Each structure stands twice: as structure tokens, then as C-alpha cells.
Amino acid sequence: MCDTDMLGKTLKEGKIVFRIQEKFYKGSLVSLEEAIDLIQQSTIVNMVGRKIVKRAIKKGLVHPDAVIEIEGVPHAQIVKL
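RE: above sequence
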């Protein structure tokens, strides 16, 4: 999932090229609370954007140390085993 303002952008930092492509990230438009509910139900999550990552941290779903920034934009992944 991604913040709506990030969809279609490409972030570059050093050797990292991170494409926030519609074919991967575009789906249903949901509120932040609905997104958090989806994260809680999921076993694998890939998120990018200030709003969604901040909310996931606030809800205790992502540890702040597990977040990387690419061009200043937060990115986090969750894998539940």
C-alpha cells in the first residue's frame, strides 16, 4: 500500500531506484484506518509514504528502526510468520 500522493512516482537514492508503480500499488482507495485493519489481517505488507508508515508505527505494527527512507520517503515491510 502507499499514500495516494506517492502512486506513480520513482524515488532514487544512491543505487536504489524504487518505483511506486500502479500495477503493484494501485487497488482500492481506503482510509488510513481501513488500511491499518488490512495490515492487521495480512501476513505480508509493503508500504510506502509518510501517512501510512507513520500510522503503522503509531499502532505498533512497525518498529521505527525497521523503516528505511528513500529520498526522505518512509518505506517499511512486514512479514508475519
